[in-house]
């Protein structure tokens, strides 16, 4: 298999790969919105496990927002890719501006998706962190670091696709890493899905 039909199929296939975690009350599925949510829903159904979201925001290079220079996560976790910052000569002021804007967007998404519900309690739980695809891995690395600070028993990363180099890096940082596809030739997550629509806040809430 070198392509997935859609996020739902990816979730069903990942659910099968993660079947050993079914029917356990200590398992919690955490989706990275927006794209991770439909996949996490299918995994949660297959494992009969609780599901929630975990908001992480990529820090895009000013003027080249698709290029990540780091990421932030709930709870104050922050990662700056010094190699990118140095090679592009990005100032501290520019970084601070992006961080401020993304923290505001992170707070907005938390309110939009989770409403007034309290913070997620992951202490002693097996957390399965889900995204539809992972490119550089910077956002997932921050999510793992943020979750570690909250005291889970294990952090497992599950995704539809990740380039082989990123998969190797994350396998060393998570307790377990599961990807359906780990191509060497990787340009974008969307190239590995036949159907890959953009999702709205309303899609996530549903």
Features of the shown structure:
single chain, 206 residues, alpha/beta, Rossmann fold, Ybab, Chain: A, 2 domains, 5-stranded parallel sheet, 3-stranded antiparallel sheet, 7 helices, 8 strands
What is the CATH topology classification name of the largest domain?
Rossmann fold
* Termini Cα gap: 30 Å
Quickly count the helices. Answer: 7
User: Helix/strand/pairing class, anyone?
Assistant: alpha/beta
Helix fraction by DSSP (H/I, runs of at least 4): 25-40%
CATH class group of the largest domain: Alpha Beta
Please report the total strand number as a whole number. 8
Rg computed from alpha carbons, rounded to a whole number of angstroms: 16 Å
Any idea what the shape is? globular
- Give start-end ranges of low-pLDDT stretches: none
Largest beta-sheet characterization: 5 strands, parallel
- Percentage of residues in DSSP E strands: 15-25%
* Overall number of structural domains: 2
